[in-house]
């Protein structure tokens, strides 16, 4: 049984990111949000594109107004009005000002903007009631970004701020990594699809739906391969076709997720089948609760997907996805960093218990109380087979190996999920 941190390292070591030349697609800016940039972006534009005003006010020559104050204001002639979007027509001479608005181009000869609240207008003249700082309220050409430098690096997720930057830089088409393909199947004779009436002993294959939703949430494409019976022949057939590296591979997947059949029960065949197909098993079980039985395997061909055999218990499948599969998808997707889960410190509202032997995850909700995170354990059974009370939770409190008890009000590390 391996420690969680070792398993995390082994998995991240196994994952090769998508190729920045082959595994890309060109998308329009409007559909680029949440995608991962594959090529660095540079722009031929300076930001700002020209010296412009940061305020509504008057463009002036600093030397004309540097001694201004309420009792002895500089008195300047207004020679022009410059709204945003227009090219100034004149050059300011000594004793002159231009009415200017936020974002408008500074006229030649002016070096400073006096905000209108510090002026008094008298017909075509303006009185400057307080001396500004030199160059105050001028946004200088190229002060934010110089044309030709790198604007955005490869390997970042395009969130709304990056989309805004790309729009401003007139980048309408972008090279992004293709979505990782994740094949999903479930194994178990008791499983049926949600549309079927349940016969005695049957349950719905909820994991397939949960995993598909998780895969999509992580920017990857789920390929749903259905339910495979708990017999070695059926499983062998499924795993060999999904995982083979030849042109007939069903999914051409980057990752395969199965759930069920990796435990030590008489019908748990996945590990032995993987081995018989030449796969190398890197992980068989992890010191984590829930989620101890977890298989991670790779095939000899570098074209073959990485195989994750997740436990069948629905909460175990969720927890092992969040803890181990999610970082793998993030690295594979081309993200340059930020693969590992982020834990936040929280105050526990409730008593939390573990046997101390495995890293234990307890599901609940994270609330902000007076600016401090507070973890509330959800009521109901915390059995890994109980899917029902996971609904409406958004966090997992983590008790490390060796910790058996967290008292109410004690600090606990929490993983935000969902
Ligand atoms: P296993 O890992 O195959 O021993 O399954 C452990 C438990 O999870 C059993 O109670 C199964 O019925 C249940 N289970 C297995 N696969 C699924 C699935 N796809 N959806 C929901 N429950 C499952
Ligand atoms: Mg089973």
Structure write-up:
With 418 residues, the chain is of the alpha/beta class. It folds into four domains: 4-18 and 179-332, MoaB/Mog-like domain (Molybdenum Cofactor Biosythetic Enzyme, Chain A, 3-Layer(aba) Sandwich); 25-47 and 146-177, Alpha-Beta Complex (Molybdopterin biosynthesis moea protein, domain 2), CATH 3.90.105; 52-139, Molybdopterin biosynthesis moeA protein, domain 3, CATH 2.170.190.11; 343-416, Beta-clip, CATH 2.40.340. It is built from seven helices and 28 strands. The chain has helices at residues 4-14, 62-65, 160-168, 206-217, 232-243, 270-276, 314-332; strands spanning 24-28, 41-42, 52-53, 57-60, 69-82, 96-100, 112-115, 119-122, 125-130, 138-139, 150-152, 173-177, 181-187, 191-192, 203-204, 221-228, 255-259, 280-285, 288-289, 293-298, 306-310, 343-348, 352-353, 359-369, 372-377, 395-399, 405-406, 411-416. The strands form eight sheets. Strands 7-4-6-5-9-8 form a six-stranded mixed sheet. β20 and β21 form a beta hairpin. α4 runs parallel beside α7. The chain is elongated and about 95 Å long. The mean pLDDT is 95. Bound molecules: adenosine monophosphate (AMP) and magnesium ion (MG). Adenosine monophosphate binds at residues 186, 188, 190-191, 203, 205-208, 259-261, 263, 265, 268, 311-314, 385.
């Amino acid at each position: 049984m391996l420690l969680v941190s070792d398993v995390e390292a082994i998995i991240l070591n196994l994952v090769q990111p998508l190729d920045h030349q082959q595994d890309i697609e060109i998308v329009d800016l409007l559909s680029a949000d949440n995608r991962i940039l594959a090529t660095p972006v540079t722009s031929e534009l300076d930001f700002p594109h020209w010296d412009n005003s940061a305020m509504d006010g008057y463009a002036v020559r600093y030397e004309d107004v540097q001694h201004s104050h309420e009792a002895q204001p500089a008195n300047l002639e207004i020679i022009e009005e410059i709204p945003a979007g227009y090219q100034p027509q004149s050059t300011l001479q000594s004793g002159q000002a231009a009415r200017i608005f936020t974002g408008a181009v500074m006229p030649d000869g002016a070096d400073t903007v006096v905000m209108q609240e510090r002026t008094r207008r008298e017909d075509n003249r303006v009185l400057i009631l307080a001396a500004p700082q030199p160059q105050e309220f001028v946004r200088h050409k190229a002060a934010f970004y110089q044309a030709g430098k790198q604007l955005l690096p490869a390997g970042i997720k395009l969130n709304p701020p990056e989309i805004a930057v790309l729009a401003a830089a007139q980048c309408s088409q972008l090279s992004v990594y293709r979505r990782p393909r994740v094949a999903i199947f479930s194994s178990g004779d008791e499983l049926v699809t949600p549309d079927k009436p349940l016969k005695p002993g049957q349950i719905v294959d909820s994991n397939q739906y949960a995993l598909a939703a998780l895969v999509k949430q992580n920017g990857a494409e789920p390929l749903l391969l259905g339910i495979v019976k708990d017999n070695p022949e059926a499983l062998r057939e499924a795993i060999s076709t999904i995982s083979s590296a030849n042109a007939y591979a069903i999914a051409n997947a980057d990752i395969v997720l199965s759930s069920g059949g990796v435990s030590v029960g008489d019908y748990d065949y996945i590990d032995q089948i993987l081995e018989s197909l030449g796969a190398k098993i890197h992980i068989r079980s992890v010191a984590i609760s829930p989620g101890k039985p977890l298989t991670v395997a790779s095939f000899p061909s570098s074209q073959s997907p990485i195989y994750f055999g997740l436990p069948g218990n629905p909460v175990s499948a969720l927890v092992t996805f969040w803890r181990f599969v999610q970082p793998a998808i993030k690295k594979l997707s081309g993200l340059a960093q930020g693969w590992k889960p982020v834990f936040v410190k929280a105050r526990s509202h409730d008593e939390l218990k573990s046997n101390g032997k495995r890293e234990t995850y307890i599901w609940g909700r994270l609330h902000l109380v007076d600016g401090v995170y507070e973890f509330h354990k959800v009521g109901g059974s915390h059995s890994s087979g109980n899917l029902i009370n996971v609904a409406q939770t958004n966090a997992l409190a983590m008790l490390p190996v060796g910790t058996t008890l967290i008292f109410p009000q004690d600090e606990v590390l929490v993983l935000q999920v969902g």
